[in-house]
Amino acid sequence: MRISCFRGFTIRRVALVLPAMACLLAAPAYSDDEEEFAKERERMVSEDIARSEWWGERQGVKNEAVLKAMRTVPRHLFVPEQHVDRAYGDYPLPIGYGQTISQPYIVAFMTELLKPKPEGIALEIGTGSGYQAAILAQVVKKVYTIEIVEALADSAAKRVAELGYGNIETRQGDGYYGWPEHGPFDAIIVTAAASHIPPPLIEQLKPGGRMVIPVGSPFGSQYLFLIEKAKDGSVTQRNVLPVRFVPLTRAKETEPAAAGKSEP
């Protein structure tokens, strides 16, 4: 998952409760922290995501299924250990290899734009740590996600499996080509800025489906686009708002056959 920054946000530091080691001998590890993390998720949703009014460039997220997912998925388990105390602040965090986990608001906003359905099949380009995929897994039937950085792809696959997300399938490879053998998709989400909208992704979007993708230059303007494919196959696109993401990384190979490998 990638970075998306909006001006004017207040960066806050999340306070953690550090239980005494003596008290943990007969209790589940981090039980006190888990309660605190749950409170922080609730604060994150109520203060940073679900506000009903417009403020700055932002609009409150209203989709109840998306809000429930944001309250449920433990974001602190998708960030590096040194950033756990900042996991529920509304800003991106580094996850290594020049990549980030997106700020919670943009994760929720992009998910809502997809209008996810419980029976839907979603494709994500840019797995990162797996957080966006985990959010999607709460609101659709199946998630296919592709990450080009092999180390991130491997760690995300392990993480989502350990956390019990059985409806997420991961793949290491070049997401530009999508995952045609599992398409068409009801929803496609791209979490890195592309120079243009990849034609293979438009082809793999099901009629009636939606795609959300940031488009623009790494050093210039970027905008979040909503792509809709009508039942007759016609495609429309809409510029939703300005964003800032890291660029979509491409593989050196350009043939779809060399684009990636699947995780079992």
CATH superfamily membership:
Vaccinia Virus protein VP39
Number of helices, where a helix is a run of at least 4 consecutive DSSP H or I residues:
6
Radius of gyration: 18 Å
- Give the spatial strand order of the biggest sheet: 9-8-7-6-3-4-5-10
**C-alpha termini separation:** 21 Å
Number of strands: 10
Low-pLDDT regions: 1-31, 253-264
Mind telling me which CATH architecture this is?
Answer: 3-Layer(aba) Sandwich
Strand percentage, roughly?
Answer: 15-25%
Short description:
With 264 residues, the chain is an alpha/beta fold.
Please explain how this structure is put together:
By secondary structure, the protein is of the alpha/beta class. It has one domain (21-262): 3-Layer(aba) Sandwich (Rossmann fold). 25% of the residues lie in helices and 23% in strands. It is built from six helices and ten strands. It has an eight-stranded mixed beta sheet with strand order 9-8-7-6-3-4-5-10. Helix 4 links the parallel strand 3 and strand 4 (142-147). It is globular and about 50 Å long. The two termini are 21 Å apart. Mean pLDDT is 85; it is low at 1-31 and 253-264.
Tag the structure with descriptive keywords:
globular, alpha/beta, disordered N terminus, 264 residues, 10 strands, 23% strand, single chain, two-stranded antiparallel ribbon, 8-stranded mixed beta sheet, Rossmann fold, disordered C terminus
